[in-house]
Amino acid sequence: MNCLYAKILDDLYYIGANDRQTPLFENMWPLPEGVSYNAYLIRDEKTALLDTVRINKVDGFIGKVLEVLEGRTLDYLVIHHMEPDHSGCIRDILELFPDLTFVGNKKTKTMLYDFLEITPDDNKFIEVKDGDTLDLGKRKLNFVMTPMVHWPESMVSYEPTDKVLFSQDIFGGFGTVDGAIFDDQADYNIFRSETRRYYSNIVGKYSMMAVKALDKLSKIDIDIICPVHGFVWRENPQTIIDDYKKWANHEVEDGVVITYGSMYGNTEAMADYLATFLAREGVKNIKVFDVSKTHASYILNEIWKYKCMILGSATYDNSVYPNMYNLLNVLRYNKLKNHIMGVFGSYGWSGGAVKQLTAFMEEGKFEKLETIVESRGTMHKEEENQLRKLAKEIATKLKEN
Ligand code: FEO
Question: Across residues 180-195, what is the average pLDDT?
């Protein structure tokens, strides 16, 4: 039935599902390692389900909800976030427990109708604001609004007795939970890159709001983090807090990501020469990507990590290579910060690509590299020397930073 179940604390349960079938998250981002949808259930004087899972996992999910409830009814359904990977089973839960009371904020209520055409009676929807509390008996939930991380209605809740934060998408990542539901049961280093790919592609463009949310949450004493994707953090929650702070604040590491678009290998050769010259200059952490082969989400993930971004493009119809154009759009709306940037490229008979890449570099908030290399046809000795010069400039800049 593919729904996982684990006791986190007395009367607090993890109920989540692994999804290895869905190929693309939000129908855009590849999921080679799958993804988990996490939900939680509290049994107290009142019972509360915290979020649901994507609709494709409804059967197992409903089974586990019933199993954990052990014959009790469901009093509350807390909706931290309305994106369908978490709200997908709300209708099914409501059918089973028609007397339940929804808990959400003002925007949640609107979205409940917009997405699911559910209009609860006023006495069946508790509208919470920042600082409001829901009393469950021995436990309580305190609500903190985290708007635009990454939807307008996004909010988290905090259970103060056991210091548990239910953090919705915040602190989540791609990848299924393979047996290990808790951080102490697995090696997070294996999952860190997929967690950062999730952050950079799903949350990254809202980093300013993420910084505000993380600042709010830093005032709370947290022992356990229960996000809606990835591990439950009970041993080292500070690890994921530190990672999220770093990514939201655009803190970057030394390294160079070279991404090129090439039809017949001329621009690709320039990328490889540049990478070689960089290594000779002593630069570590050099990554080279073919924009036609590697999905933009992986390229963005690496660019989010490393300080220097170099883009190279062949000219196509007097313009930038189409697949590179797509990457430029992804980079543009993610509002990168703290990056050094440089460009190179080639053309057959009239240019265009390097001009466009340079315009992109000029419009962004980048530390720009002066050496721009453009080759007519194949790379000649002159361009080779220019690439050597660009490598030296990059190495110097990285040392200065
Ligand atoms: Fe995991 Fe924004 O939904």
Answer: 96
